[in-house]
Every structure is written in structure tokens, then in C-alpha cells.
Amino acid sequence: MLTLLELLQSHVTLTGAELADRLGTDVRTVRRYAAHLRDLGIPVEAERGRYGGYRLARGYRMPPLVLTNDEALAVVLGLVAAERVGMGTTTATSGALAKIERVLPQALREPLTAIRESLEFTSTAVIGQAPGAGILLTLAQATRGSRTVSINYQSWRQQHTQRDVDPYGVVFHNGRWYLVGHDHLRDTPRTFRVDRIESATPQARDFTVPDDFDPVTHLTAALSQVPYRWQVEVTIHGPVDAIARRLPRSAATLTATTTGVLMRARAERLDGMAHLLASLEWPFTIHHPDELRQALRTLANQLAEAAQREPDERRP
Length: 316
Prior knowledge:
Helix content is 41%, strand content 24%. It has eleven helices and eleven strands. The protein starts with a helix and ends in an 8-residue tail after the last helix.
């Protein structure tokens, strides 16, 4: 049906037989496709007779975007989800949605608007640090083409440097975009926050990604080395596969042992680590720090008090 529409846009008039021949079908099917297009609000005219045929209404200009129901739904949900997880700015997402809705047929526009306005999420929205579209697209193209890229980078200490980087991958993690690649300045694999890259220029130099290099694994390992106040080691007495599904790689490193799974993690606050451990269904043994034991006792007392608290009969 979309191919029929493209043919009608590029020809003044085509007969049913000509359209059937180009579509590899029969005249009856062409007639049915034309009726479907009319149902979508596209004015396909049909004239009988020797010089008759199908054409778009005179003066009608097709919008630049034509999507099926499933395609339109995928685009709208993708934009809404991207905004939710912090992959794009609210301004950009709202603008794109408005443009898409303007060019969709009315019969498709209203249901999609209803879905967007009624959709709810169980997780809270992430406030992301969206990078410039030009920089992100340049990095993606350089990654796919295995071309070195020169970047102007500002560190968290506000230091400005220019570096040549072999981009191995672009990773989105917890509301932020990261570039993972070989840094020629340090001669080692490094990670860079994309929102801190002020400019990116492709270079006429190719590179080869090392065998078995995984950008996601490298990023999560690098983030786990960021200094925190507490170094935590706990043995969780349960199956490693099940524990790994509950604890993402960005939260901890897991090592199978003869007594269970050794979890190594870093934490700025121990009350959050106490909540994490309490949420697991397996017993565990704390190796250090000892202060984590007190954090667990505090949490246990809070839970015990909540369990014993009687309801206020005055409340409705």
C-alpha cells in the first residue's frame, strides 16, 4: 500500500493495470489498497474510462512522513521512553512528537495521542545529561567507520584538553552518554562523558578494535573504580546467576566462591547498601566494613517498629 502511494506521488495518473504490474499483484488488490489509503485520509481519486486511472487529488501534497500503524506506534513510544530514561531532552522530544502528529492522518493521530497521554510508568524518570546531537552523531559515525576522532574535552575539574580517540563504542548508562575508546594522549582505553565533549572532528586515520573488547564491560568496570567512602565486601549465600540478575554490573562485582558469591562494591552511604542487602532473599556474611552491621541493625529496628505500629483509628 505504501509502494502504491509512492507511485502515485511520482506520476500524474496510472491505470489500475499499470499499478498492478508494478506492484506484482492484480487490479482488484490495487482497488483495495486505494480504498485503504482513502480511509487514512489520503485523497486517492479513481477515474473510469479509456484515459482513466488513479491519481492523488489535484493540489494535494503528501506530508514527508508516511508510517503504518505499527511504525507510528513504535516511533511515538520510542520518543516517550527516550525522554523517560534521560536519552533526550524534553524540548527535543516534545518537538519531534508534535511534528510527527501534525503529518499523521487524523485516523491515526488521535489513537496515538490517547496512548501518549494515558501511558504510565512504574519507574521514576531519569534526569539525563543530553549531549549535542551533532557531537553524538559524529561519534557514532566514527565508531561505525572505525575512524579516529579528535575531541576537545572538559574534565570534571574544568580542565580543557584536546585528544585523539579511537572510538570503540558509545554507551548510554543511568541518564548519561559515554564514549569508550583508546585515548592516544594516555595511550590506554578511557571513558569520556559525551556531554563534556565540546567538539568532535573525524580524522583520516583508521583503527581496529581489539578482539573481545566490550565497551559496556569497560565502562561499568571504570565507573566501579570511582572513589567512594566505603569499600564493601559481602558473601551472599545463593546461586550466582540469580544474584547477578538482582545486582547489575554497575552496582557490584560478583565472584563465585566455594561458600557463595563474593560481592565487592563501593558506597558513599551504608544505609543504601543495607537496604540493598535486605532486599535479597539469600543469607549473607559481612566481611567489611564493620559499620555496615550497624547500618543493618538500624534498618532492622526501623522495620520492627513499623511492624509493631498500630493503625490510627481516627484516620478514615
